[in-house]
């Protein structure tokens, strides 16, 4: 138990250091953008007094390192400042949309993860069969197709032609859970088709790689059915790479949904850009940490390092 906690503590410390380095890159990348932020916000017709006032308000008259530590300290408490475009709190603006993002990502993940693992086990069980070949063709097609193209196809057949689901996914807090699930089914299905392909292929590859192991051969010689060999002997040992690819795809589900409008960049709304980039980075780091912990807990060799 002590070894596990020590490894987790090291992973957590490395994650925090990584996030700190990323925060420095995010902040100073905005600093290196060409042009005057105040001029971009107020426009070419702004007077020098107005520009000077906005620079003072944004702290642009102070040294960049000072502003970085102030921004980082506020970000730790959840305060990312105010949007330069809407003049509202960045935290409130993001949280209002991020809730919908998490809902959609969770919806897609609840469908995608069990389906991908089940399909991965089945294609490994019936590898080189017609089912395996069809599954590989479908998944490769899904991976190769842009998300917007898949979305258009689903809207055409499931919304326009059949009317089974609404073409526009607009939800609010007053809706019931069923209404929310119904309205967001098409975007969730679009994301499912993309991530299922990655997770299924990794599950298949991991299981097939383990089928040549001596303990699997011994189980086969004892007459253990093929499905039981995969479920009881290979799948538990294939969890580590599967967990990693699941974590990466969950990060994609959360950050792949558009959270930052183009206007945030074109209007030089750097508080929104910085906040969203930091949230995206924290999401990837947190899910990778969860994948590392999951791999450690499912792999005895990692739990007892030499």
In quaternary terms, these chains amount to single chain
Average pLDDT value? 81
> What is the CATH architecture descriptor of one domain?
Orthogonal Bundle
Per DSSP, the total helix count is: 15
Q: What's the helix-strand series?
A: HHHHHHHHHHHHHHH
Output the radius of gyration.
Answer: 24 Å
Strand fraction: under 5%
CATH top level label of one domain = Mainly Alpha
Helix content: over 70%
Largest sheet: none
Low-confidence stretches: 259-263
End-to-end CA span: 15 Å
> How many β-strand runs?
0
3D shape: globular
What would you note in describing this structure?
The protein is an all-alpha fold and 306 residues long. It has a domain at 90-278: MetI-like fold, CATH 1.10.3720. The chain is built from 15 helices and no strands. The protein has helices at 2-31, 37-42, 48-58, 64-76, 90-125, 130-144, 147-160, 177-183, 185-210, 214-221, 226-234, 239-256, 263-266, 270-298, 300-303. The chain is globular. Mean pLDDT is 81; it is low at 259-263.
How is the secondary structure organized here?
Elements: H1 2-31, H2 37-42, H3 48-58, H4 64-76, H5 90-125, H6 130-144, H7 147-160, H8 177-183, H9 185-210, H10 214-221, H11 226-234, H12 239-256, H13 263-266, H14 270-298, H15 300-303
Helix pairs in contact: 1-14, 5-9, 5-12, 6-9, 7-9, 9-12, 10-11, 12-14
């Amino acid at each position: 138990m002590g070894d596990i906690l020590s490894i987790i503590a090291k992973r957590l410390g490395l994650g925090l250091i990584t996030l700190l380095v990323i925060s420095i890159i995010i902040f100073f990348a905005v600093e290196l953008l060409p042009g005057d932020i105040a001029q971009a916000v107020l426009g070419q017709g702004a007077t020098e007094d107005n520009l000077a006032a906005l620079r003072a308000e944004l702290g642009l008259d102070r040294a960049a390192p000072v502003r970085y530590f102030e921004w980082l300290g506020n970000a730790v408490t959840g305060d990312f400042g105010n949007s330069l475009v809407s003049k509202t709190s960045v935290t409130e603006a993001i949280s209002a949309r991020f809730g919908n993002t998490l809902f959609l990502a969770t919806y897609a993940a609840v469908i995608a993860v069990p389906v991908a693992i089940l399909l991965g086990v089945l294609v490994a069980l019936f590898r080189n069969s017609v089912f395996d070949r069809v599954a590989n063709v479908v998944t490769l097609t899904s991976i190769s197709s842009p998300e917007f193209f898949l979305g258009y196809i689903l809207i055409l057949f499931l919304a326009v032609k059949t009317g089974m689901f609404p073409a526009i996914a607009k939800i609010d807090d007053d809706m019931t859970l069923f209404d929310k699930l119904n309205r967001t089914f098409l975007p969730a299905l679009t994301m499912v088709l993309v991530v299922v392909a990655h997770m299924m292929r990794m599950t298949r590859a991991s299981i097939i790689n383990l089928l040549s192991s001596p303990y699997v051969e011994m189980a086969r010689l004892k007459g253990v059915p093929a499905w039981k060999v995969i479920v009881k002997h290979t799948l538990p040992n294939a969890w580590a790479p599967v967990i990693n690819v699941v974590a990466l795809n969950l990060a994609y589900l959360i950050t792949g949904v558009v959270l930052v409008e183009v206007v945030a960049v074109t209007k030089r709304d750097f508080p929104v850009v910085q906040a969203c980039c930091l949230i995206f980075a924290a999401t990837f780091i947190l899910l990778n940490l969860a994948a590392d912990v999951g791999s450690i807990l499912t792999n005895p060799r990692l739990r007892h390092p030499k």
